[in-house]
Specification:
3 domains; mainly alpha; single chain
């Protein structure tokens, strides 16, 4: 047997996967080349084999012709990629919220390790967790596809299929939502302009009593104003477009601003007397509320990212 033929087959095999399938394909190619060489030259000599190999084409191109009909994930399983990824990431997000709130580390070996996380750590961790979940689900679906078995994947019937989620449509409600957000934002700006704060314990803006100390008051007030401005801008954009990128931009900015709020120091921020025994409970409850809001915003962000990804895959 020609060494050049074996080297050529080894090169083709480098681009193929699956031992049994690879051997079957290489055996077929070997037979074709030997038959072609014998048919053209009368005998499969080295020169005849060299000519047949040259005519067969580059190894990678030959391998690709055998892979055209072998999808990475079978079409019947593609919708489960988004379903299972969203489900796993939802669990990851809830556990992340719990880890931040409890300030603890917990392990479910060998399935889960959740280290102690701060708020910024959690915001950096969640995108990585999403990619890990996506990769795990894609690998599992690929292995199921390669098994060539008829496997019925479970999914609750009461769940919402992402295929059925429609992008928001233009409606009078978008205009009303923008008008409401504009009124709230304008009122907040007016209060801040008059009182230099959004947090007062009386309604006399000429002589306001501040709830928070000056430094904390300014930081928190500006963050809240930025959140209101972001919501107003998103509401305005929804009047003219139903693009999910509007929601993605709004959700991303909201997560950053919520993270900044949670990161604010809680000790010594009140300008009015607060019982010491109440402060730990107040601090915990405020952070839990913010983290729950962040979890819902993160879920909406992931939902829109998945919807855009699915639409682009379908367009290819």
């Amino acid at each position: 047997m020609s060494e050049k033929l074996e080297a050529y087959l080894d090169e083709i095999g480098h681009f193929l996967s699956g031992r049994a399938e690879r051997e079957e394909i290489l055996s077929e190619i070997r037979s074709h080349i030997l038959e072609k060489a014998a048919a053209e030259r009368g005998v499969a000599s080295d020169a005849a084999l060299d000519a047949a190999i040259a005519a067969y084409g580059p190894a990678r191109r030959v391998a690709e012709t055998y892979l055209d009909d072998a999808p990475i994930i079978a079409p019947v399983y593609k919708r489960f990629l988004a379903r299972y990824t969203a489900l796993l990431f939802g669990v990851h997000a809830l556990l992340t919220v719990f880890a931040v709130a409890s300030k603890g580390t917990f392990v479910i070996f060998p399935f889960l390790f959740m280290p102690r996380l701060g708020v910024i750590d959690a915001l950096m961790y969640l995108p990585t967790a999403f990619l890990a979940d996506l990769g795990f689900v894609a690998l599992a679906l690929h292995l199921i596809t390669r098994s060539r078995k008829d496997i019925r994947l479970p999914w609750p019937r009461f769940s919402v299929d992402l295929d059925e989620v429609r992008p928001p449509k233009k409606a009078v409600w978008n205009i009303l939502g923008f008008a409401l957000m504009l009124v709230v934002t304008d009122f907040a700006l007016y209060v801040y302009y008059r009182a230099h704060t959004l947090f007062v314990i009386n309604f006399d803006l000429d002589a306001p009593r501040h709830l928070l100390t000056p430094d904390a008051d300014k930081r928190v007030s500006l963050i809240v104003l930025a959140m209101l401005a972001s919501g107003t801008a998103a509401a305005f954009a929804r009047i003219f477009t139903s693009s999910r990128w509007v929601e993605i931009a709004s959700d991303s900015l909201s997560l950053v601003l919520i993270g900044l709020l949670v990161r604010q120091p809680f000790e010594g921020v009140f300008a009015v007397p607060v019982p010491e025994r109440v402060l730990p409970y107040l601090k915990t409850n405020v952070r839990i509320v913010l983290l729950v809001i962040a979890a819902f915003v993160a879920f909406d962000l992931v939902k829109n990212l998945i919807a855009i990804g699915r639409r682009r895959l379908a367009a290819r």
